[in-house]
Model the fold of this input.
Amino acid sequence: MRKAALVTGGAVRIGKEISLNLARKGYDIALHYNSSEKEALATRQLILEGGVNCELFRCDLSSAEDAKELVPEVMKSFEGLCVLVNNASIFENVGFRDVTPEFLETDMAVNFKAPFFLSQSFSAETGEGLIVNFLDTRVKKIPVEHFCYNLSKKSLYHLTKMLARELAPDFRVNAICPGAILAPPGQGEDYLRKMARGAPMKRAGSIEDIINAFNYLLENDYVTGECLFVDGGKSLTY
Ligand SMILES: NC(=O)c1ccc[n+]([C@@H]2O[C@H](COP(=O)([O-])OP(=O)(O)OC[C@H]3O[C@@H](n4cnc5c(N)ncnc54)[C@H](OP(=O)(O)O)[C@@H]3O)[C@@H](O)[C@H]2O)c1
Done:
């Protein structure tokens, strides 16, 4: 059976590079996207040119019901599914006082509930494998900016550790906590420089740094419950 990986938010940015990296390692790719259809098609083409299979799966992960259906849907095409990458995320800067019930619901749904239920169905439907969650260096901080985003990533940090225990020995569950890697869409180098300010390494990181961390988690069968900070040491300063 051919090995396969499901990457959420795999059409663009970090998710795209993780998908291409897994494809280079011989994994067939179940590439999830929500709104980036054109980019998903382009990424699929690049993956196919590398000689592995790739199918696109559109799903709005703000619906827990839809999120629960995603893995069974993927398994119809990719029986050898053995890697789940929870990369998709909403990153909006809303302060505590302005949070509405709808905003909290959507933020927690995409950033926390979806990884929760994807992990549940992934572990139920596949025999063994690896889950990698994308967190944020700020999980070590007590932040007040991006209130719901940070709350959701902190929840996912604890879920990573709890599932590493719950799902062992058949599954490994790890996470990557990026620092300043890619500026949000519409923001430039200044944003990254500001974000990297105060990091002991005194600079932003690159997608290559994320891929190296990811491959370490992919290839080390004895590592579980680990949250790798790829942040130039920023989390040491909180
Ligand atoms: N970039 C950084 O420097 C940095 C720093 C710290 C942490 N991180 C974390 O690393 C991961 C990747 O970062 P990134 O900057 O590449 O991510 P991103 O561009 O902010 O988001 C990744 C994808 O999430 C998907 N998404 C958003 N809302 C969705 C919804 N309702 N349903 C389904 N998918 C949805 C989007 O897919 P579509 O485009 O298809 O809609 C989007 O392309 C994220 O988890 C992020 O929190 C990144």
Summary: The mean pLDDT is 97. The first strand starts at residue 4 and ends at 7. Residues 9, 11-15, 33-36, 60-62, 87-91, 110, 134, 136, 178, 180-182 surround NAP (CB under 6 Å). The helical segments are 13-24, 37-49, 64-77, 101-125, 147-167, 189-196, 207-219.
